[in-house]
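Table S2 (continued). Query chain:
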Amino acid sequence: MPRLTTRASAAAPRIALDARFCARGFASDASAPVSARTLSEALLEERAHESAAYEPSAAAASGPPEPFELHETDGDAEVTLTKTYGDDEEIAVTFVAQEEPYDDDMLDEDDFDEEEDGLDEELELEEDESIAIDFNVVVSKTDGSAHLDFDCVTDGEIIEIRHVSYEQYDENNPILGTAYSGPNFEDLEETVQDKFHDYLEVRGINSDLASYIVEAHLDKEQREYTNWLGNVSKFVADKKETE
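Corresponding output:
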């Protein structure tokens, strides 16, 4: 089986950003002059456009790999996947679908200043955008005594561990100062790093889950964006528009 992870000292994994989510642009209605539409109407028009144009991927629609369970709430960008492992462990995978998942560092600001290059330049820029989604894995003992906390990033195929922290709960001897958060992951011996990767993999944190996280992230962000358009449209609507 091929290695699913790379050392944290390597560059963050990247894949091309799905064209469905590159450079949103408001839909235009040729039948009505822009000046004749209110902000509320423009937002509703964009919401209708997004709703008609978007279709979730099969992976997002089918749900997470079993036996993970999906937990999300409309209006809340946080998504959590949970499962149990063995007799004494609970696993929670969490990510936040707050923004489109590409790095601003991947974009050249000069590209946005050179409007004379037109649409061809915009399309070329979109092709260079990449995904790198941060997510968190918490492995807890069912008795609540302690947990391991993994900060990770994925491109939908490769999972990279960025940091591992350990927290133990002791009501009789609480830590009053600053708890030790763990070493820099890249400073660990390579063998230790690999064993941490294996530890997560046997608990279902693998390439299948990585692929789902990317699709679920895109789907959740798109649904929240569409809802946002509707909510803001209602908020800014003139009273006469709602009567």
